[in-house]
């Protein structure tokens, strides 16, 4: 939906867009992966139980939660 709205508004997503997510089944499905590839979006999915790829994002979110 966000990609569609950006395209419609004339501000498409940039070429270095990364989707950060956990290893949930809906994020690792073939259809979702195909959609990311079609939209030129890189996936950032860690292994099960490994949150190292999202550590930077989690720490940034923590800053907002504290204030």
Description:
- The protein has one domain.
- It has three helices and two strands, in the order αβαβα.
- It has helices spanning 2-9, 30-38, 55-66; strands at residues 18-21, 42-45.
- It has a two-stranded parallel ribbon.
- It is globular and about 35 Å long.
Topology:
Layout: H1 2-9, E1 18-21, H2 30-38, E2 42-45, H3 55-66
Parallel strand pairs: 1-2
Quick synopsis:
Helix content is 43%, strand content 12%. It is α+β, with helices and mostly antiparallel strands and 67 residues long. The mean pLDDT is 75.
Main sheet record: 2 strands, parallel
Which structural class matches the secondary elements? alpha+beta
Instruction: Please give the count of helices.
Output: 3
Give the overall shape. globular
**What integer value in Å does the Rg equal?**
14 Å
How far is the N terminus from the C terminus? 30 Å
Q: How many domain units?
A: 1
Record the strand order, biggest sheet.
Answer: 1-2
Mean pLDDT: 75
Strand content: 5-15%
Oligomer: single chain
Q: Ranges with pLDDT <50 over ≥5 residues? A: none
Number of strands: 2
Relative helix content: 40-55%
Organism: Yinghuangia aomiensis
InterPro entries: RNaseH-like_sf
Protein name: Transposase
Descriptive keywords:
globular, alpha+beta, 67 residues, two-stranded parallel sheet, 3 helices, 43% helix
